[in-house]
Amino acid sequence: MTLLDHARAQERDDAAAKHQNDEKHGLLITKKDARAKPPCPPTKKLRSQAFILDQMRHSMKFFSPERAIDESGGYFHFFSEDGSVFDQDTKVLVTQARFIFSLSVAAEHLKDPKYLKAVEHGVSWLATAPLRNKDNGAYHWALKDGRPTSSKIFTYGLAQCLLAYAAALRAGCKMALPFLNETWETLEQHLFVERDGLYAEEASSDWNIDKYRSESGNLHMTEALIACYEATHDQKYLDRALLVADKICNKAAGQTQGLVWEHFDENWTPQLDFDNDNEALKIFRPWGFQPGHQVEWARFLLTIDRHCKALGQARWWLAPKARFLFDVAVEKAWDDEFGGLCYSIDLDGAVCNGDKIFWVQCESIGTAAMLATITKEDKYWQIYDKLWRYSWDKWVDHEHGSWLRRMSREHVPYFTEKTKLSLCVDPDFHMLGAYAGTITFMRDAGVA
User: Which site from 52, 81, 97, 302 is most exposed, i.e. has the minimal number of CB atoms within 10 Å?
Assistant: First the structure.
């Protein structure tokens, strides 16, 4: 079963036409003209903590505090390929929160005080500035020239805020603690549905809950809850992360062959014919099974498993389910002809959207390394190596830092900006999270 995404199809056609026109007029950068890429490091280096730390530095070379901080408040959100800011007036809740997360992970692992200072700057603005909706205790979704353009409330967005405050606290930003507690209580009061053990996904600005339910908001709630546990050592957060993961990865996924579907109704029945007509939410609500979300869930299940075992509270299903989700995603989504993991697969396991997106590749790299360290199976290291060599060639921006964002199946870029409204709102949040998981599991396993 497939669902034609007309907007994305048009986007692909436009990009292909532009590519052909540029090629015809000699405007494409050929291998002869392009700056030579450095060779991909040998296997031993790829599988080292030092290499992963270098990749963190590579990301933060682009999204550096010096470049990102808006002295008038928060961060700049929209950057061209070379790092220049092309929109100083638009601020997006998810981008602001994800910036705090990325800078917090950098502060933890790269040990430069400038990152913690930048985190404190971001936390203060997120918690008290115009993105806060003082009328309802939540946040506006986006601002233009300091004024809200949308005030609808999304669990996805609040999850990013909770994660930001937890990561900041974990990195040493003590001012984040009251906002972590406040965000937890807001979610608990308005969006957690006790009978389901899961979070509703969206509400109007007066807290009228929509019937739509999403795995994605619950995915990022799980991520945030793990971070809350790591920052506070309060077991209620780990218990809730475990509950949500169980409900999504076992109960809900049990309706769709064990894989995690994206869209549900208020009874958590899968909406298999879901069609998203909201352009601003397209990147958050695609159709089909998302291989990137399967491997992201796998990463969080492995992290929960690690914490449960440390407490003597091991759950037998966590690691096997993580392996299943990762194994199926990689098997079904890998593109044998052009390389890389495709964006979406349908109910029969066939690729229904062959686009390539950066975060799917880097999340898979991180989860492969984590599985390799806990299973001791070489096949996961082989997948890790293959993904790194592919990404090094196709995705890493060796000149400016960070990675490219989205390409067609044949690796024709749709846009060159590193962040772009409604198309990419990620200042390397996925990368920093995957890298941090990789380093933690390498360290546990004694991998230098």
Answer: 81
